[in-house]
Amino acid sequence: MQHDNLLQHESLIQPADAIEMLKADHRRVHKLFQSYEATNEPAMQHQIAMALFVALELHMHVEETVFYPAFAEATTRAGHALVDTSLEDHEQIEVCLEELQGLEAGSEVFEATFRTLRLMVEQHIQHEERQMFPQAAVALAAQLEDLRDEMQDLKDLLLG
User: Fold this and answer.
1) 47 Cβ partners below 8 Å, 6+ apart?
2) Residue 11 pLDDT > 90, yes or no?
3) How far apart are CA 63 and CA 75, in angstroms?
4) Can you state the angle between helices 144-159 and 18-38, rounded to 10 degrees?
5) What pTM was computed for the model?
6) Which end of the chain is more exposed for a tag (fewer CB within 10 A), N or C?
């Protein structure tokens, strides 16, 4: 089945640093959205949606617990504003995820809410990759490998 590797959480290739790890998560989430849109098979859509929800929850938790605090500590007021915006995005995404988990997959309401989720996530990814990550690459240059390791340890713990 072509979706099997997308539904797995572990990666065989260790990202170079924390930012590359987060970008890899972004690419995986994007591919899950694409895979969902590419299939009309309800069971597969459900499986992809569940994998997507877990990937988003895990990614947001790692950012909020490890990456954002490190960036906020190492940056200026402008960096703090980027973190605040990202945290607000996470809150909106979380509300959307909660709504989706209470809906029947495939229903019109689910599909409309799922499209809203995709739009919010894609905008959030663009914000991070275009604005936050370039600043974080400078502010956290000496810590990026240690942060990657800390983030991977947290993922491993959460996925248990």
Assistant:
1) 3, 7
2) no
3) 16
4) 50
5) 0.90
6) C
Task: Give the Cα separation of 34 and 105 in Å (integer).
Answer: 16
Distance of CA 57 to the CA centre of its chain: 7
Report the distance separating Cα 148 and Cα 32, nearest Å. 23
148, 21 in Cβ contact below 8 A?
yes
Report whether 123 contacts 130 (CB < 8 A): no
Contact 71, 128 (CB under 8 A): no
Q: From CA 137, how far away is CA 128, in angstroms rounded?
A: 12
Contacts of 160 (CB under 8 A, 6+ apart): none
If you ran DSSP here, which 8-state letter would residue 75 be given? S
In contact, 85 and 128? CB cutoff 8 Å: no
Which candidate, 118, 121, 99, 120, places its Cα nearest to that of 110?
A: 99
How does pLDDT run across 33-75, given as a tens digit for each residue? 999 999 989 889 989 999 999 999 999 999 999 999 999 999 9
Which pLDDT band holds residue 6 (cuts at 50, 70, 90)? low
Instruction: Let me know how long the chain is.
Output: 160
